[in-house]
Amino acid sequence: ASWWQKFFHITIPMLTPVIFFNVVMQTIRLFMMFTQAYIITEGGPIDSTMVYVLYLFKQAFQYSSMGYASALAWILLIILSVMTFLIFKSSSYWVFYENEEGGI
């Protein structure tokens, strides 16, 4: 077998559990881009770097709209839960586990 065949039929399938974990973690991290936007620009000129979590933070602690911020946090939880659920459901099609196909 060539190097490419070994890579795509052996190496990549064995790495899919690690890739799966990283996809889930990076999806969650994508919505948590608070620190960079707050430290560097605090939302930027004319809210050009206003991300969802920074908007949530400002609603809660700058404008004292705790109820609205709480609703935003619940929406964020629902969005992340749905996205994570979809990733977990799709994992049965692309994540390889050794014992599923006659392995050890």
UniProtKB/TrEMBL annotation:
Subcellular location: Cell membrane
Residue ranges constituting the ABC transmembrane type-1 domain according to the UniProt record: 1-87
Predominant location category: membrane
The keyword Protein transport is assigned to this record: no
PROSITE patterns (alphabetical): ABC_TM1
GO terms for biological process, alphabetical: transmembrane transport
Family: Belongs to the binding-protein-dependent transport system permease family.
Name the record gives this protein: Binding-protein-dependent transport system inner membrane component
GO CC annotation: plasma membrane
InterPro entries in UniProt: ABC_transporter_permease, MetI-like, MetI-like_sf
Residue spans crossing the bilayer: 6-25, 37-57, 69-88
Domain of life: Bacteria
Keywords of this entry: Cell membrane, Membrane, Transmembrane, Transmembrane helix, Transport
Membrane topology: Multi-pass membrane protein
Family matches, as Pfam families: BPD_transp_1
